[in-house]
Design brief:
By secondary structure, this protein is α+β, with helices and mostly antiparallel strands. 38% of the residues lie in helices and 26% in strands. It has 3 helices and 3 strands; from the N terminus they run αββααβ. The relative contact order is 0.24.
Length: 76
C-alpha cells in the first residue's frame, strides 16, 4: 500500500525526491502520512481536495480486504 501511495504522489509533484510515506499501524487502523515538498502540497491536494479524495478512495479500495480502517494524511 505504501508503494501505491508513493507512485501516485511522485507522478503528481515537481520534487519527487521529497515524497515520503510514514506508516503507523494499530489494532483497528493503518495511518499513512504522506509528506511532500511545501511547494507541491497544492498539487497533491488538488482543487477542492479532489486529488486527495481520489487518492484516499484508491487506497481504501485496495485495502478493502483487510479489516482495518485506512487513513491517508497529507502533510508538508
Amino acid at each position: 500500500m505504501e508503494d501505491l501511495i508513493l507512485i501516485i504522489a511522485k507522478a503528481l509533484v515537481d520534487y519527487p525526491e521529497d515524497v515520503r510515506v510514514d506508516v503507523k499501524e494499530d489494532e483497528r487502523s493503518v495511518v499513512y502520512s504522506l509528506s511532500v515538498h511545501p511547494g507541491d502540497i497544492g498539487k497533491v491536494i488538488g482543487k477542492q481536495g479532489r486529488i486527495a479524495k481520489a487518492m484516499r478512495t484508491v487506497v481504501a479500495s485496495a485495502a478493502a480486504k483487510s479489516q482495518k480502517r485506512v487513513i491517508v494524511d497529507i502533510i508538508s
